[in-house]
Amino acid sequence: MSHVGAKAPLVLGIETSCDDTACAVLDADGRVLASVVSSQIAHRPYGGVVPEIASREHLRNWPTVSERALEVAGVDLGDVDLVAATRGPGLIGSLLVGLSLGRSIAYALERPFFAVHHLEGHLFSPFLAETEAAAEVPERFVGLVVSGGHTALFDVAAGDASTLAQTRDDAMGECFDKVAKRLGLPFPGGPWLDRLAEGGDASRHPFRIARCGDTLDFSYSGLKTQALTEIETLERDGIETALRVEEGRVLATEGEPPQPLLDLLAGFRQAAVGQLLDRVERLRRGRGVERLAVSGGAAANRLLRRELEGWAKGVGVAVDLVPLVYSGDNAAMIAWAALLRHRRGETGHDGEVEAASRIPLGTAT
Ligand code: KG4
Ligand code: ZN
User: Fold this and answer.
1) Running DSSP on this structure, what letter comes out for residue 247?
2) In this model, does residue 270 exceed pLDDT 60?
3) From the CB of 191, is ligand 1 less than 6 Å away?
4) What's the mean pLDDT when you consider all of the chain?
């Protein structure tokens, strides 16, 4: 079996940094021939990710996920020219599974192996297209990564990223997840809160936008605490705040979630997104931003997408929002980052490369 028209090198990507087992196949143009993500549901009863469960599940899921990716791409494993896997950061046991699989496959096929930093994957993901060839990556851009583990701004030049700002405490996605958990929503709760906030009026329950002095750093723990406190206040006023998901709909005990809670969540989301806008606008005024690429799981947030697009238009900045399918953790972004390294003439790792649970961007190779 061979994919018709797929240009070499074909890249096989593997991503197992947290609880999603992902495998993808890209062609030389950065066209995603297949991107399979299997989310582990074994954690759900625990309201978070359990590291031991995660690594075991990766091992169990891998055969199905990788076979499916090759089948969808219409290629054989032997057709693969480059292999890439996430090196870190993430859960060490989970990373080890993907990294070992990647290295073994590359070794067996006698192909180059690329160990990719998870954030490098997110950073370049806005240039992927859903079905077409990837867009050309600009020589210089500002990358905003908003996920469950990171909220950070990077200056990217010639493929190298340097950190401009990062969160001092919680990441934006994490903040959403914690507030959602308090309401009884399943993990990860970010998407549910986003949906609920669409039905609220932020002006009826405004939250303050956090600042970290004159720096561009982020902070989400104050917003989280404020939201938790205000949920308690609603409860004291006799408003139902316990929510559950039934057949894809969020319900309170008495039916629809109450309007004051929706307003609270809208205000919360407005302040969370407002903080991002505050930082990118101050960065633009300070040193200038010509192009902004936005990625990460929380970049799926509806308000974030609307507001950043509006801002970009208003001030004349080019904004690349990651396609929704590649916002959450996936292996296409890992394969893509490796392909970009290959295009720059890098040859991958010859010797040992170790998984690293904590690793700053720029040290993955
Ligand atoms: O990038 P990702 O899949 O994993 C990490 O690297 O962290 O991001 C997952 C995070 C979770 O915290 C999830 O709740 C959040 O992204 N998220 C959202 C939305 N969709 C996913 N947060 C806010 N609004 C959303 N629509
Ligand atoms: Zn991620």
Assistant:
1) T
2) yes
3) yes
4) 94
Tokens of 77: 């494993």
Radius of gyration of the chain (CA): 21
Look at residue 1 in the predicted model and tell me its pLDDT: 42
pLDDT (0 to 100) of residue 51? 84
Q: What separation in Å is there between the alpha carbon of 351 and the centre of ligand 1?
A: 34
Whose alpha carbon is nearest atom 1 of ligand 1? Answer: 297
pTM for this entry? 0.95
Beta-strand relationship, 249-252 and 243-246:
antiparallel
Mapping DSSP to helix (H, G, I), strand (E, B) and coil, where does residue 133 land? Answer: coil
Q: Which atom of ligand 1 is nearest to the CA of 304?
A: 24
Q: Which of 94, 76, 96, 105 is nearest to 13 (CA)?
A: 105
> At 365, is the pLDDT very low, low, confident or very high (cuts 50, 70, 90)?
very low
Ligand 1 within 6 A of CB of 79: no
Residues belonging to the chain: 365
Tell how far the Cα of 298 is from the centroid of ligand 1, in angstroms: 4
